[in-house]
Structures are given as structure tokens and as C-alpha cells.
Design brief:
about 120 residues; two-stranded antiparallel sheet; rod-shaped
């Protein structure tokens, strides 16, 4: 957008827009809100930092998992983390889970046949 267009978008004249850009005047919140609606990166205007990537959106499965994790006891959270670490296999250990599930939390029959880390 040119100065006239962005000024109109923010409800100010081209002259006022030029004063903003020169640092001789400062825009108010209504102006910033209006140009933000037009897609202008207001964070960059105020701080000089570009906006980061858009926030990640969670899938329905991820939202359910997060809700269950937040509601779980500390023991349940530990069991869930252990199960996920075993499923991913990033730890380099082999884990077998032979655990009945009661109320969404694994029981005491978790068997770790991996190598202990020092």
C-alpha cells in the first residue's frame, strides 16, 4: 500500500501518515487496530520485530490427549509420558507394556527391558 492507501485504511490523511513514518507524530490504538485488520504487521511497526509463524493448531486427538493429561494425577502423567517415550523409541531403549488400564491410567505391570542410563 502507498501512504494514501494505508492512511485511509487507518482513518488518517496522507500527511498524517507521512508524519507517523517520519516519527513526528505517533498513531493511536484505533489507527493501529484498523491497519491490523487490513493485514499490516503492527508488531513490526511498534517493535521492529516481525511476527512469528502462526500458532500451531491442535488436532482433535491432540486436544483430547492434552485435556486428559491435564486432568490426570501425577502418576498418570508419568505413565503417559513413559508410554509415549516408549512408542516413539527415541530413548534407544526397548519397552514392553503389559498393563491393564483402569480409569485411563496404566496399572503396575509396566516392564522396561531397556538398558539403564548412568
Amino acid at each position: 500500500m502507498n501512504q494514501t492507501q494505508i492512511g485511509e485504511c487507518g482513518g488518517v490523511t496522507k500527511k498524517t501518515q507521512m508524519l507517523y513514518e517520519a516519527g513526528e507524530r505517533f498513531p493511536d490504538a484505533a489507527y493501529l487496530a484498523a491497519i491490523a485488520k487490513a493485514g499490516v504487521d503492527v508488531r513490526y511497526i511498534i517493535t521492529g520485530d516481525r511476527e512469528g509463524p502462526p500458532p500451531m493448531t491442535l488436532t482433535a486427538d491432540e486436544r483430547e490427549l492434552l485435556a486428559l493429561f491435564r486432568a490426570a494425577s501425577l502418576t498418570g502423567k508419568a505413565a503417559a509420558i513413559g508410554a509415549l517415550q516408549g512408542a516413539v523409541g527415541s530413548s534407544g531403549r526397548s519397552q514392553n507394556f503389559s498393563a491393564p488400564v483402569y480409569g485411563g491410567v496404566a496399572g503396575n505391570n509396566i516392564i522396561n527391558k531397556g538398558v539403564k542410563k548412568k
